[in-house]
Design a protein that fits this description.
The protein is an all-alpha fold. It has a single domain, classed as Four Helix Bundle (Hemerythrin (Met), subunit A) (Up-down Bundle). It is built from five helices and no strands. It is elongated, with a radius of gyration of 17 Å.
Length: 151
């Protein structure tokens, strides 16, 4: 596989992971709109687990980039600050869900979905190119990105 194909594959893996995360949130929103809070809580729990794994793996990849001098000053810190905001939003959405109030939940989950989408774009537009330029060996790049998306 040539380098361009390899990078497209890695981008596709990241896109798939984000689609799954957003799909979970869409399911939670739909279930809450129907008043099905128990199933919504189960799906949100799955989302939380998957999102936390993704963020922790991304932070590990960022630290590896820093160690390889492939991470501009402040980039990892700004991504980690974004992660902290996402974690707060996840906690806020969980709290809203625990009240079994669809309106409260919908007020929290919409901004969370927007933040997850914005973070996805930043990963695709900024993180993946940095990984690709630092990890020039396709096998190392493959391992780094797969670590982000494996469950």
């Amino acid at each position: 596989m040539n380098r361009l194909q390899h990078l497209k594959t890695m981008a596709s893996l990241l896109d798939r992971d984000h689609e799954l995360l957003l799909h979970h949130l869409s399911d939670v929103r739909a279930l809450c709109a129907k008043g099905a809070f128990q199933p919504a809580a189960r799906v949100f729990g799955e989302y939380r687990h998957a999102q936390e794994h993704h963020l922790a793996s991304e932070e590990l990849a960022l630290h590896r980039l820093e160690e390889a001098n492939g991470c501009p000053t402040g980039f990892a810190a700004s991504m980690e600050a974004e992660h902290a905001k996402l974690r707060v939003m996840v906690d806020q959405t969980w709290a809203a869900l625990s009240h079994h109030d669809a309106a409260l939940l919908l007020g929290a989950i919409g901004p969370l979905m927007e933040a997850v989408s914005a973070h996805e774009r930043r990963e695709r537009d900024e993180l993946l190119p940095k990984l690709a330029s630092t990890l020039v060996d396709p096998d190392r790049l493959d391992r780094a990105v797969r670590q982000l998306v494996q469950r």
